[in-house]
Amino acid sequence: MKKLNLDYKQLPLIATIILFIIMYAFGSFRYTGFFSSQVFLNLFIDNAFLIIVAVGMTFVILSGGIDLSVGSVIALTSMIAASLIMNAGLSPWIVIPICLLTGTLIGMGQGALIQYFNLQPFIVTLAGMFLARGLAYVISVETIAINHPFFSYMASGRIPIWGDNFISPSVIIAFVVVVIAVFVAHFTKYGRNVYAIGGNEQSALLMGLPVARTKVMIYTVSGFCASLSGLVFTFYMLSGYGLHANGLELDTIAAVVIGGTLLTGGSGYVAGSVVGVMILGIIQTVIVFEGTLSSWWTKIAIGALLLLFIVLQRVIVIRSKTKKGIISQH
Amino acid sequence: MIKSMIKSKLFWPIVVLVLILLFNLFFDRGFFSIEVRGGHLVGSLIDILNRGAPLMLISIGMTLVIATKGIDLGVGSVIAMSGAIGAMSVAGAADDSILPLFTAIGLSVGICVLAGAWNGLLVSRVGVQPIVATLILMVAGRGIAQLITGGQITTVYYEPYSYIGGGYLFLLPFSIFIVAAVFAIAMFLTRKTAIGLFIESVGSNPDASRLSGINSKNIILMVYIFSGFCAAIGGLILSSNVASADGNNAGLWYELDAILAVVIGGTSLMGGRFFLMGTLVGALIIQSLTTTIYSVGVPTEYNLVVKAIVVLIVCLLQSPEFRKRLTGAFGSKKGVKSTKDKGVTLS
Amino acid sequence: MQNQTPRLAMEGIVKEFPGVKALSDVNFQLFPGEVHALMGENGAGKSTLIKVLTGVYSIDGGTVTLEGNPIHVNSPLEAQELGISTVYQEVNLCTNLSVVENIFIGRQIMKKGRIDWKEMNRQADELLKRLNLNIDVTKLLSSYSVAMQQMIAIARALNVQAKVLILDEPTSSLDRDEVNQLFDVIRNLQKEGLAIVFVSHFLDQIYEISNRITVLRNGEWIGEYMTKDLPRLELVEKMIGKELNELTSISKGKGDEVQTEKRESFMEVENLSKTGNIQPFNLDIHEGEIVGLAGLLGSGRTELARLLFGADKPDTGEIKIKGVKKQLNSPKQAIANRIAFCSEDRKAEGIIPELTIRENMILAMQGTKGWFRFIPKKKQIEIADEYVELLNINPPNPEQLIKNLSGGNQQKVMLARWLITNPELLILDEPTRGIDIGAKTEIMKLMVSLSEKGMSILFVSSELDEVLRTCDKIAVLRDRKKVSEISNKDHKTQHDIMKEMAGGM
């Protein structure tokens, strides 16, 4: 039975995993020091924030929507955190909830607009993107460096795993988020409703599923993930800045797509997005190790990968359509 | 009836534009004054037209793409590419020769038209959703632009290059003439040939269009190429304005501004009917908003916030659900649509 | 049965849309263990009544009682919770989910805060066995046929404690075997005491499965009858509300068949086929001839027509037009060879909703002229005015958006689109579907008069009487194969054709 389930829809995910292995092997053979467990763990440390935001985005894309506001929400979160900690001198235990609440409320507002006024997710989250980044600038156009023991600990804290290898506290946060997300996606009603809406929203409605509530929830969760990611990003950068995470929404969408989630919705896995993030991470690592390559090659490589996976998805959709065509012609 | 509808589509954007301009008058009595200074017409209104030129151009291209139920997210990156190619190809050219200028224009436009064709082929031949297909170029294009400029902000010292975005002709900025020319081309192609009808029919119902003998693939290809063309010229103007090329930041957010201009102008993101004139007004609204924010002395940081609010208001005003909630009086107007309900039961 | 209290009673139901009274004073009662057919022509108000009952539409007047208790249904979800389940014509499930999930989604079995997949698989298996289905419930719904999906939809509807099951045209995309399978399921459920509302256009099926019939017409309640006491003809009269005789007047003068034989052939088709769509077939269409394509739904009628129009690409065979071999690989090429095709799916493949009547009309003609030879607006208006008048299109304003027209008038605009191209072969796929009887008659009259002027017509229809009344020759399809060709010279009856369509009788 399990074997039957492993059909063409999982092809992108399998391709992603194989690609990751190939890239990792390539890096290991080419560069000395690449094949070390710490380099591997660094992928997680450097991309913990991206994993978190990609998890939220996965649900959005699974439902057939898109959230362009995540990068800006990260920037806004970093600004709020930095200004409240440094300028207002508040305790992190007050600041962190405020940050999370801000992102969550932005997400909820976007979800409500999308659902109740039947606006396109694309355009609403575009407005959210402007709004969040604008608000970040309103707080300050300058970088605010953070100098606070808690943040410093979160930034440089090392949690040993084995031998000399370590991870950062952020990795733990990302890991918890992923585990919860996998559970939600596969073992809760909410998670399944997301898939149903992505498959056929009209049907979901007629099947009596709480489409409105679920859709608002999806964007709320994405907003929450973005602000959580913003905090992790702030730990990582130890500063708040309106230009932080510029264009990150694209990286996130790319990670989700490369991770095998259909952009039309209804098919994909949270775990896939994690692998997608890892692939983006390994591209950067390769470029760092290569030394002579410039950073823009990252963009070109991501673009090429996007192309590869989008065409792959397209082939799958065409294949499943012809298959359906034959079925309906009994 | 249709005429009055088109009128009403243009009516509100124009009202908004006039309100924004009047608002400026409130702060600056001389806002509407235009004077001749050094052989140029100078004034805030001219300035809005001049600065708004790239956006108007790109929005014209975007209008046709959106009319086919598509979207072109790649324009911002194409702007960066165009500027980079233009600037790099005139780098080190001598001021007395005008040939490098034409080489630069030719190269930029040529390559960006190819980029547009790439988008168009992905959408029309491979059948990828437009938002996805153009995302590729949005990501990779900026990388390519940086590749061309070597990641540096390249400054151009070649004088003729500055004419594209900064020159004057008959007292007016040259960029205004470029916009007028491109707009005229777009109007001619869409209203004096069958292309406009085909774009609207493909955007409204692609399957039915194919069965009516329309080659929708070529129409779709054409609009993306045209969008690439518009972005190329917009990119040249922008790069010429600052006499430099910045692969990283040139044209940043332009795709979003352009989409916004199109939507404000009354063209629906669902494709079908399009309003080029409305788009121009939409682009001018965005530009005058920016100018207003500068001139009124609001910190520029608020620019994005204001834009966000404008986007939301415009979208809400176009949403039938919102209108329904706003006023019950509109309900009687919807009576005409009852045939729609009937259509459901009939078919 | 009559003495029981009804399980569901709707009395004096009123539903108004702005400008239209969709239902006025409609009654409907449903008893346990019966199959109650809801009958009516298109636009009679069947769908509206069902949508009112299931909470898709709000109710403007009247009462609904379920087992004696008044109820107010505000959403499909509420209806389901009350035990009113609906299976729609188009399968409304999610093909990207597994079978078991489609059955249970929204009311999954939970254990310790998580979905209990094992138990759900088990129960789904059980439920489907009750319907005599033995399938792998963990596979994706998309891996099953439409008929199977339909059954799964019923399984889903039964999974709640259903008291009332509404089947809204469930058979329209099923073949005969599948219909039998479905009817077995329905009979089983009936025995279990479920009350079933059955909506279908197929009279045979109504008489086969239903106990009671309620007839609606133009949103009004016409009456309620026991099926066994209501002869078919009477039922049809009640549905249509006027004498059938009007149609017979269309009949083509049968005297000129001799002439037909002499006429030049317009199109000769040899061995044309497309795998999975239609097996190789031959067909001759003469000038001025009306050729009927008869066959059950899914017999390959539309598929055949689409090949002749280049809408799909054939795998084998060739087409000769006026004796010259032609490649028809796209609609564009077919149109260039003066072939026109009016699709059966008006909404998806016919109208351009955002455009006006005028623009919709000239579209195909402009298509032949290409991008740059634009038909001047003045000329467009002339053409549009001419056809609005000729076809009696309402509203008679060519600048009206086509999406605001009724189905019949949209169909006329589609006809005009093709007549303007002045075709030599006009393919009409179900041109009379979903439009009112008046428009039907007009369209059929037009067909006959066009053929008399020399135009060839290929008429695809599931209404056999329409085919018999208009066609010179009828090709019958069965199971994606052309099985016979009947000349309409002698007094052929529907029975003769049906025998061919059914086969092996």
From TrEMBL, chain A:
Keyword flag Ion transport: no
Transmembrane segments: 12-33, 39-61, 68-88, 94-114, 121-146, 166-187, 216-237, 270-289, 295-317
Domain of life: Bacteria
InterPro entries, sorted: ABC_transp_permease
Keyword field: Cell membrane, Membrane, Transmembrane, Transmembrane helix
Cellular localisation: Cell membrane
Pfam families: BPD_transp_2
Hydrolase found in the keyword field: no
Membrane topology value: Multi-pass membrane protein
Main location: membrane
Protein name per the record: Sugar ABC transporter permease YjfF
Taxonomic source organism: Aquibacillus rhizosphaerae
UniProtKB/TrEMBL annotation, chain B:
Short name of any one Pfam family annotated for the protein: BPD_transp_2
Primary location: membrane
Name of the protein this chain belongs to: ABC transporter permease
Membrane topology label: Multi-pass membrane protein
Residue ranges of the TM segments: 10-28, 73-92, 98-118, 130-148, 168-189, 219-238, 250-267, 274-296, 302-319
UniProt keywords, alphabetically: Cell membrane, Membrane, Transmembrane, Transmembrane helix
Keyword Cell membrane applies: yes
Subcellular location: Cell membrane
